[in-house]
Amino acid sequence: MRKKLLLGNWKMNKLVAEAEDFGVAAFPLVEKALVHNIDLGVAPTYLSLPIVKQKVHPKMIVAAQNVHFQPSGPYTGEISIPMLKEFGITWALVGHSERRSYDNETNEKCNAKIKALVLEKMVPVYCVGETLAEFEQGLTKAVVSAQVREGLKDLVAEEVKNLVVAYEPVWSIGTGKNASTEIAEDVCRFIREVLKNLFGEVAEDIRILYGGSVKPENIKAYLSCPNVDGALVGGASLKIDSYEGLLNNII
């Protein structure tokens, strides 16, 4: 059975002191999650990664929000995998819709990042999802299929066994508009079918998350869906009370 995962994406929020306070406050939440066989994690800004990694429970996942595919070089403003590993960071988001929209994060670039991550035994959280225009045109599955196939091109089953995929319909991120549980389950099930077509039975072990205006009030309904194995949460993961509410409603 796939282990549930709650991962908070802090985006461009929290000063270092605020991130540290959260990490300390979250310590008992990880203990609670472990009892219920749930993985907890957060993705802070680069500047907060070292202090959060130092202060949180050793079993809490601390992920980078982005990473470059080259180990070093003339890439101003970028952060490499070796730089993350220096601080014990072994997870990274790839292809979040905001990076696709604002920073030209193409499927091909995501593919390069995922290949580099798996080569270094790190865990990619690969984000996929359609825009409002694509949703309204009935293109959701075509878009998501292309993102999965192109983003995971040339990888083999052994390399994706620890992969996490996050389905985030762009039209529901930070908008307060939620995809129904029926939509979430349908698309997550479809993603698993695409993964199974690409990689065989290992697809049954790959965790697929839902993200998009997830809150304590609706997380239980989403995670009750057979193919939704967790949630990638934005705003509701920023305050410890709300984060605890998310966890409690998974339990």
Describe the secondary structure blueprint for this structure:
Layout: E1 4-9, H1 16-25, H2 27-35, E2 38-43, H3 49-55, E3 61-64, H4 81-86, E4 91-94, H5 97-102, H6 107-119, E5 123-128, H7 132-136, H8 140-151, H9 157-160, E6 164-167, H10 181-199, E7 207-210, H11 219-223, E8 230-233, H12 240-250
Parallel strand pairs: 1-2, 1-8, 2-3, 3-4, 4-5, 5-6, 6-7, 7-8
Protein architecture, described:
With 251 residues, the protein is an alpha/beta fold. It has one domain: TIM Barrel. An 8-stranded parallel barrel has the order 1-2-3-4-5-6-7-8, surrounded by 6 helices. Helix 6 crosses helix 8. The longest helix is centred in the last third of the chain and has 19 residues. It is globular. The chain starts with a strand and ends with a helix.
Strand content: 15-25%
The CATH C-level class name: Alpha Beta
How would you sum up the global shape? globular
CATH superfamily: Aldolase class I
SS-derived structural category: alpha/beta
Largest beta-sheet characterization: 8 strands, parallel, barrel
Number of strands: 8
Query: How many domains make up the coordinates?
Result: 1
Which structural traits does this protein have?
eight-stranded parallel beta barrel; alpha/beta; single chain; 12 helices; TIM Barrel; 251 residues
